[in-house]
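Title: Comparing notes on inverse folding

I've been comparing how different people in this forum approach sequence design from structure. To keep things fair, I'm posting one structure and asking everyone to reply with a full sequence. Here's the target:
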């Protein structure tokens, strides 16, 4: 997967189009990622244990996964781009074709 945890991404399609956020979690087997502040849904959470009152109950906002193809990576220079791999000196690095930049 070319997008990693901690990357900043721009949502290209869907209801949250144009939003930027940080990747919180990747799901490589499903080809999906979870982005902070994007694709939030409200779920009903029931209290499970009387002693654990710290957990939230009632309506809770949860970030749901979105497909990797619906986002673009934000480069260190602040531009949105698709990512490819480049093998340089025997090491594999992420590379932006659009801006000719190596992304760490």
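Reply #1:
Here's my take.
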């Amino acid at each position: 997967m070319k997008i990693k945890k901690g990357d900043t991404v721009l949502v290209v399609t869907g209801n949250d189009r144009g939003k930027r956020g940080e990747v919180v979690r990747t799901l490589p087997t499903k080809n999906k990622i979870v982005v902070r502040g994007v694709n939030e849904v409200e779920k009903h959470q029931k209290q499970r244990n009387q002693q654990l009152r710290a957990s939230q109950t009632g309506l809770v906002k949860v970030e749901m996964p979105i497909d990797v193809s619906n986002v673009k990576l934000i480069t260190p220079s602040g531009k949105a781009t698709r990512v490819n791999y480049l093998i340089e000196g025997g090491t594999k690095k992420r590379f932006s074709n659009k801006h000719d930049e190596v992304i760490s």
